[in-house]
TrEMBL record:
SUPFAM superfamilies: PFL-like glycyl radical enzymes. PANTHER family: DUF711 DOMAIN-CONTAINING PROTEIN, UPF0210 PROTEIN SPR0218. It comes from Pyrobaculum calidifontis (strain DSM 21063 / JCM 11548 / VA1). It comes from the Archaea. Gene3D superfamilies: 3.20.70.20. This is DUF711 family protein.
Length: 320
């Protein structure tokens, strides 16, 4: 098990004096990423708040939610690489069209469509909004799971680390987001096959994902955020192999959204028909609302069969 991210949550108008101490303490635990999420600042204060955190050496910053148009989000994402979300399909589509026309599809990794409600104080960016001061934590643990009971053991170790760093900084520990998420060969798809003897894309896949979700939910630890299986295509090498082999299609990822938080995340999509993409996004909104839980969507609008996602390499594009 490794810490995927440690996140400091702050009000946007905090004095940020804790940030340097947090960064130093967090880095001692060797997480994959160190993050800061601020409550959504009013547009007049956004640039100042983001620039201040950048100057303090914070590379993962979540800030732009609720108040911002596609044009404003593009400006800050392009300049600062700040994470943002939309709750409106129309504004998200405007953003996607802007980066597609400018040849900047890579900026999609920073921006999500958040459908089916809001999620608060999760360390998973960009589909989470800060409302409380404190620390949250996420884990990288697909390779550690040999049985479903291993999930609680991993989350308890994460909780202990989160409580340790929170106590050292005099901050509230908000919780662990126990979501099972991949990173390269640390694959959720492989974990599903190892635990249930099925390959994603075959009958039983929805049931397997649901059983993992139930194991996460039942773990007796302090939790925050999503706490579901995540299937970000670009981040999971086995998912990429399954797509290339024709075993998984766009239809599958949309379908899995019914039982996991992002069924369609970090996914290049060949966009030839923007109206079809719009209808697809509304399908995902309908699934989230029927499911009664929020979901996050991130799409790279591309023309090619494969798209090179920074940090994760070539990723096959899904077709509508």
């Amino acid at each position: 098990m490794r810490i995927r991210s440690i996140t400091l949550h702050l009000p946007w108008d905090d004095d940020y004096s804790i940030v340097a101490k947090f960064k130093q303490a967090a880095e001692e635990l060797n997480p994959a990423t160190v993050r800061v999420s601020i409550s959504p600042p009013p547009p007049r204060a956004a640039e100042r708040a983001v620039a201040k955190l950048r100057d303090m050496g914070i590379n993962y910053i979540s800030a732009l939610h609720l108040y911002y148009s596609a044009e404003e989000v593009y400006k800050y994402v392009a300049e600062y690489g700040v994470f943002a979300s939309f709750t409106d399909v129309g504004e998200y589509l405007k953003f996607l069209k802007t980066i597609y026309d400018k040849g900047e599809a890579h900026l999609s990794r920073y921006v999500s469509l958040l459908a089916g409600g809001l999620v608060f104080n999760s360390p998973y960016f960009p589909a989470s909004i800060t409302t409380r001061r404190g620390i949250s934590l996420s884990l990288l643990y697909p390779n550690d799971i040999k049985t479903l009971s291993d999930i609680e053991e991993a989350l308890k170790r994460g909780e202990q680390l989160g409580m340790y760093i929170s106590s050292a900084l005099g901050l509230e520990f908000l919780g662990v987001d126990g979501s099972l998420s991949p990173w390269g060969e640390e694959s959720v798809a492989k974990a599903v096959e190892r635990l249930f003897g099925i390959r994603l894309g075959t009958p039983g896949s929805h049931y397997a994902i649901w059983q993992l979700n139930k194991a996460i939910k039942s773990a007796e630890v302090k939790k925050v955020g999503f706490n579901e299986v995540m299937l970000p295509l670009a981040e999971d090498e086995e998912l990429k192999r399954l797509v290339r082999a024709g075993a998984l299609t766009l239809r599958d990822f949309v379908s899995y959204t019914a039982v996991c938080v992002p069924g369609l995340d970090m996914a290049p999509i060949r966009v030839k028909d923007w109206d079809a993409l719009k209808r697809l996004l509304y399908d995902l909104v309908a699934i989230a609302e029927a499911k009664g839980r929020p979901i996050g969507v991130r799409i790279f609008p591309v023309d090619d069969e494969e798209y090179d996602v920074a940090g994760f390499g070539k990723t096959p594009a899904l077709k509508i």
